[in-house]
C-alpha cells in the first residue's frame, strides 16, 4: 500500500447531519462508525477495520457497522463528539484526542514515563481503570472500550541532533498528549496535528520535528523522507491505547448478545493490533536502519529535565481536575508495584537475551 493511498482516504472532511435514531431495515441495525485515522493505515487504521469486520461477522447480519475513514464523515478530532450527539452510534480513535473534554482522558491513552501496553491492559481489567473509564466517559453519555495499543512509540523525528535541553528552545514540534505539555515547559512550541497533516507540515518546514507513532507507521507516513534522526523510545508514550466508543442510548438499545459481540470484538482487536505493531515495527526498524536512519536516545540531562517537567504537568492537572486526580491515584497505585516487578523480570530478560 502506498502512503498517498491511505492518506488520501482520510483527507476529506464533510459535514454530517445528526441521526434521529439508528437505521433499522427489516430487523437489521445499521450503525455508522467513523474513525480518527486513515482506515487503511497499518496498526491504527487496521485496528478499526479489524473491529468492524469482527462485529459484522459475529452479528451475522443483525448488526452492521459501516466504517468511515478519518475525516470522511466527521473531522478526525470530532469522532467522540459525533457519537455523543448521535451523528454516529459508534466511533473509533484514541482518548487523548478528547482531553479538552476532560483531561483525565489522557490516562486511557498514555501517560509519560508510565505504563506499557500490557500494564495498561492489566490496570484497566484488574486495577480499577475500566471503572474510572466507564464513569468518566459516562459523563458524556458514552460507553468506552479499549481496543488496541501501539506499544512503545518513538520520541520523534528531528532534523538536528538533540544534545541538550537548550536545543528544544523555539522548536516547532508535532507531539501529542501530556508529552506536549512537558515539552512546552522546556521551550518547545508543541502542536497537535491530525494524522494526515503531519507529513505535509514536516516536509514544508511548518514544523521542525514530528512524533507520530513508531517504525511501522512512521515509515508508512514518510517521516524518514524528511529527517534521518529518530529518537527512541518515547518518554511520553510507552504504550498508547486505542478505543471504541458507543453512544449510551444506542448501546442500551442492543440485546445482551450484541453488546457481548461489541465487547469481545474490541478485546480481539486489541490483541491482534498489539501483535501487529510488535511484528511490523521490528521489520520497519530494520528497514529504516538499513536505509541510513540514525536511532538515538535522549541524553540523560534531557531525560532528567523531561521527568521534572512531567511531574509538574501531572501535579498541575491533578490540582485542576478531580477526575484527573482520582485517575492519577489509581494509576500510580498499580504502577508503584508494576515498576519494581518489570525491573526485576522484564527488563533483565530483555538484556539477557541480547
From TrEMBL:
Binding locations of Na(+): 212
One GO CC annotation: tripartite ATP-independent periplasmic transporter complex
Pfam families reported for this sequence: DctP
Alphabetical list of InterPro entries matching this protein: DctP_fam (IPR018389), SBP_TakP-like (IPR026289), TAT_signal (IPR006311), TRAP_DctP_sf (IPR038404)
GO biological process, one term: transmembrane transport
Keywords from the named record: Metal-binding, Periplasm, Signal
Molecular function via GO: metal ion binding
PANTHER family (alphabetical): EXTRACYTOPLASMIC SOLUTE RECEPTOR PROTEIN (PTHR33376:SF5), PTHR33376
Signal peptide: 1-25
Protein name: TRAP-type mannitol/chloroaromatic compound transport system substrate-binding protein
Amino acid at each position: 500500500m502506498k502512503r498517498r493511498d491511505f492518506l488520501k482516504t482520510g483527507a476529506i472532511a464533510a459535514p454530517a447531519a445528526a441521526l434521529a435514531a439508528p437505521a433499522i431495515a427489516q430487523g437489521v441495525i445499521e450503525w455508522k462508525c467513523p474513525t480518527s485515522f486513515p482506515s487503511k493505515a497499518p496498526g491504527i487504521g487496521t485496528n478499526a477495520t479489524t473491529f468492524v469486520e469482527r462485529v459484522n461477522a459475529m452479528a451475522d447480519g443483525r448488526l452492521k457497522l459501516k466504517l468511515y475513514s478519518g475525516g470522511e464523515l466527521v473531522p478526525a478530532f470530532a469522532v467522540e463528539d459525533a457519537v455523543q450527539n448521535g451523528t454516529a452510534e459508534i466511533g473509533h480513535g484514541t482518548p487523548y484526542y478528547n482531553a479538552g473534554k476532560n483531561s483525565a482522558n489522557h490516562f486511557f491513552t498514555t501517560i509519560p514515563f508510565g505504563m506499557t501496553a500490557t500494564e495498561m491492559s492489566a490496570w484497566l481489567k484488574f486495577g480499577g481503570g475500566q471503572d474510572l473509564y466507564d464513569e468518566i466517559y459516562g459523563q458524556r453519555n458514552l460507553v468506552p472500550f479499549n481496543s488496541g495499543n501501539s506499544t512503545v512509540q518513538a520520541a520523534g523525528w528531528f532534523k538536528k541532533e538533540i544534545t541538550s535541553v537548550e536545543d528544544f528552545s523555539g522548536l516547532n514540534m508535532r507531539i501529542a498528549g501530556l508529552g506536549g505539555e512537558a515539552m512546552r515547559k522546556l521551550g518547545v512550541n508543541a502542536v497537535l496535528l491530525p494524522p494526515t497533516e503531519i507529513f505535509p507540515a514536516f516536509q514544508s518546514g511548518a514544523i521542525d520535528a514530528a512524533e507520530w507513532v513508531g517504525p511501522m507507521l512512521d515509515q508508512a507516513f514518510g517521516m524518514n523522507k524528511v529527517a534521518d534522526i529518530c529518537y527512541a523510545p518515547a518518554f511520553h508514550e510507552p504504550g498508547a491505547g486505542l478505543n471504541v466508543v458507543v453512544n449510551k442510548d444506542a448501546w442500551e438499545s442492543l440485546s445482551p448478545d450484541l453488546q457481548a459481540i461489541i465487547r469481545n470484538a474490541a478485546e480481539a482487536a486489541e490483541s491482534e493490533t498489539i501483535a501487529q505493531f510488535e511484528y511490523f515495527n521490528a521489520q520497519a526498524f530494520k528497514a529504516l536502519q538499513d536505509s541510513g536512519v540514525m536511532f538515538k536516545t535522549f541524553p540523560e540531562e534531557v531525560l532528567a529535565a523531561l521527568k521534572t517537567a512531567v511531574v509538574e504537568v501531572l501535579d498541575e492537572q491533578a490540582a485542576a481536575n478531580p477526575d484527573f486526580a482520582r485517575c492519577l491515584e489509581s494509576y500510580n497505585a498499580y504502577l508503584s508495584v508494576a515498576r519494581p516487578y518489570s525491573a526485576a523480570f522484564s527488563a533483565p530478560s530483555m538484556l539477557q537475551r541480547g
